[in-house]
Amino acid sequence: MKSNLAISRLRKLIGVALGITLASNISIASAGVNDTGLAVTDAAVKVGILHSLTGTMAISETGAQEAEKLAIKQINDMGGILGRKIEIIQEDGASDWPTFAEKSRKLLVKDKVAAVFGCWTSASRKAALPVFEKENGLLYYPTFYEGLEQSHNVIYTGQEATQQILAGLDWVAREKGAKTFYLIGSDYIWPRTSMKIARKHIENVLGGKVVGEEYKPLGNTQFGSVINKIRLKKPDVIYAAVVGGSNVAWFKQLKAAGITGQKQTLLTLSVTEDEVLGIGGENLEGFYSVMKYFQSQDNENNKAFVKAFKDMHGDDSVIGDVTQAAYLGPWLWKAAVEKAGSFDVDKVVKASETSGIELTTAPEGYVKLHPNHHLWSKTRVAKWNKDGQATIVFTSDLIEPNPFPEGYQ
Amino acid sequence: MGEYTAQELLSIFAMQGFSGLSLFSVLLLMALGLAIIFGQMGVINMAHGEFMAVGAYTTYLISVLSEEYFPGFVEYYFIFAIALSFLVAGALGYLAELALIRHLYKRPLDTLLATWGLSLIMQQGFRSIFGAREVSPTLPDWLMGSYQPIESIDIPINGMFVLGLTTFVTLAVFYLMFKSSWGLRVRATTQNRVMSGAVGINTKKVDRLTFALGCGIAGIAGAAFTTIASTGPTTGSLYIVDTFMVVVFGGAASLYGTIASAFSIAQAQSILEFFISGSMAKVFTLLAIVIFLMLRPEGLFASKVRK
């Protein structure tokens, strides 16, 4: 009896194995569309979403993955890509950088996804990058970041440092006549690199002076001493890149110390509508953010996007810069796949680099993909209101992405 | 510093002094509950930070509810929220002792693990109930401004408020511990548990109430910190390291030690921060504490008991 059972199990196994081979033959049969064994059938194509759903970064990454899901749903409603519906495999990076690498490998090797939308912090991207390069995967990365990177396997849908920083500094020097700057940031790679670029620009181009530069540990909640130093130096502009929960403490304590938007110009690189939820509009009122996107942007694309986002994720949800950039990812991928006529990563990358992909439907307005894998985009400066929304006071021209700026390193 | 007037320097000196005091009150408020529990029962409560978060979330809830239903109450809700935070965190602490801690008194290492597990469960609880995003209650206007005794000095009102609250809580704890009959029983139990039991003190009840009190004070701390920072599911773990540092440096069983330790750490930190960068100030403070503890492992104040 036992051997019979074993044999029947073996038969089943063989049956399953045959089935799998047949199925994969079918997918290979759709030749040209997929020559590299990705998870593509005649009906569907699999993609990965890889963000932190748990841990300290979940606060920031929630919006990004919600926007990616919205874009994918909209693409599917329009009939998918090359006639195939997009199926999502979601993994949790858990705010832990090695986990991002591990889950990237799982998505690329086991699930054979055609593209991954994910990562948020630079640390998570740097951890996942070697995996994407080794397995030749394709990552759409949504966050504004420090630049100094360009990988065959990554499309950067947020701004690189110079796009965000230079336009903002030029604006504040021109509009506010600012000459002296106090730089403050959280203590890790992105604020430090950004401040390095900012300092060069202030000293060499604007002819201004940096009167103080300060970094606080991530998660720090005590800003009393820094605020006193700022008082002593009386800078024209406080230029800030404090991130995460620290941001809340920073702005609450500024307000409590009597430094408010009426008396002091403050320009921040790291506050989007997402952070304002925690900080409270009343503590930010009158301060400025420099970003490529604000929820209050007044154009038809954006109105439709905000409405669709709220319909899907609730009326209370807000949309920050990274959320919008994440939303662009699936659309840029769709455009590139359709230009290439194939899901194969090398062909999609080639199409992305050479065929002048542009999105006229982007909520932020018009964006165009540069051969260096970054986006041409406009930079905006906006003033925060009490209700947690911002009024845009300046919009730049379309800025060319320049991840390796000369004279700024 | 030649380019500044004497008045300016004096103002900065005053404000910097206050910023040290305000850091002191924050550290003390955090450490008080932990020190009471550790001093009394030898239990290291790894979930202390989460009880703070309970207080902070309670404050947030009251803020949202009063904005929604009693707009006239918004100016005053904060005082009420502090009291409620104390009660909610205290009640949860009482339950935790009843369900978990009391079974582990003879096994100190296991209480460490158990309370750590409890902290993870509570963090996930916050995430499920309130979401992963950080939240922040709307603070009444009178709490958010600054007090200007003279033109060039701004003393943050929320800092003064936390300082006042810490003073009040500390005095209350001292009164409870050294003047009330309950405090007498607590001290008796600490000194000799078996003997106290023999003379008719219900030591189990004393333990339970002490644990609840410690957690309740954590709740107050949480409520107070909503004036300076935001609240998220992992907020507690942000504070716990500093809290342990204060308690260990002070000498684990002594309330005076906890006060002295909070004061010296806060002053060192804030004076250093003014002259060097924040990260380096932290490094030097930690280094000084490590060296001190190597020379004197029992901390600043050790209770002189023959072992």
What would a concise description of this structure say?
The complex is a heterodimer of chains A (409) and B (307). With 409 residues, chain A is of the alpha/beta class. Chain A contains 13 helices and 14 strands.
Secondary structure blueprint with pairings:
The complex is a heterodimer of chains A (409) and B (307).
Chain A: H1 2-29, E1 44-51, H2 58-77, E2 85-92, H3 97-110, E3 116-118, H4 122-134, E4 139-141, E5 154-156, H5 161-176, E6 180-186, H6 189-205, E7 209-216, H7 224-233, E8 237-241, H8 245-256, E9 265-268, H9 273-279, H10 281-284, E10 288-291, H11 300-313, H12 321-340, H13 345-354, E11 358-362, E12 365-369, E13 375-384, E14 390-399
Parallel strand pairs in A: 1-2, 1-3, 3-4, 4-5, 6-7, 6-8, 8-9, 9-10
Antiparallel strand pairs in A: 10-13, 11-12, 12-13, 13-14
Helix pairs in contact in A: 2-12, 3-4, 5-6, 8-9, 12-13
Chain B: H1 6-41, H2 48-69, H3 77-99, H4 108-130, H5 141-144, E1 146-147, E2 155-156, H6 157-178, H7 181-191, H8 193-198, H9 203-225, H10 235-250, H11 255-275, H12 278-295
Antiparallel strand pairs in B: 1-2
Low-confidence stretches of chain A: 18-29
Class computed from helices, strands and strand pairing of chain B: mainly alpha
Side-by-side strand order of the widest sheet of chain B? 1-2
SSE class of chain A: alpha/beta
Order of helices and strands of chain A: HEHEHEHEEHEHEHEHEHHEHHHEEEE
Helix run count of chain B: 12
Strand count of chain A: 14
Radius of gyration of chain A: 23 Å
Compute the CA-based radius of gyration of chain B: 20 Å
Categorize the overall geometry of chain A: globular
Q: How many DSSP-defined strands of chain B?
A: 2
Terminus-to-terminus distance of chain B: 54 Å
Largest sheet of chain A: 9 strands, mixed
Shape of chain B: globular
Descriptive notes:
- The complex is a heterodimer of chains A (409) and B (307).
- Chain A is of the alpha/beta class and 409 residues long.
- Chain A has helices spanning 2-29, 58-77, 97-110, 122-134, 161-176, 189-205, 224-233, 245-256, 273-279, 281-284, 300-313, 321-340, 345-354; strands at 44-51, 85-92, 116-118, 139-141, 154-156, 180-186, 209-216, 237-241, 265-268, 288-291, 358-362, 365-369, 375-384, 390-399.
- In chain A, a hairpin with a 5-residue loop joins strand 12 (365-369) and strand 13.
- In chain A, helix 5 packs across helix 6 (189-205).
- The longest helix of chain A is centred in the first third of the chain and has 28 residues, at 2-29.
- With 307 residues, chain B is mainly alpha-helical.
- Helices cover 73% and strands 1% of the residues of chain B.
- Chain B has helices at residues 6-41, 48-69, 77-99, 108-130, 141-144, 157-178, 181-191, 193-198, 203-225, 235-250, 255-275, 278-295; strands at residues 146-147, 155-156.
- The radius of gyration of chain B is 20 Å and the shape is globular.
- The N and C termini of chain B lie far apart (54 Å).
- The chains are: A alpha/beta (409), B mainly alpha (307).
- The interface between A and B is large, with 40 and 45 residues.
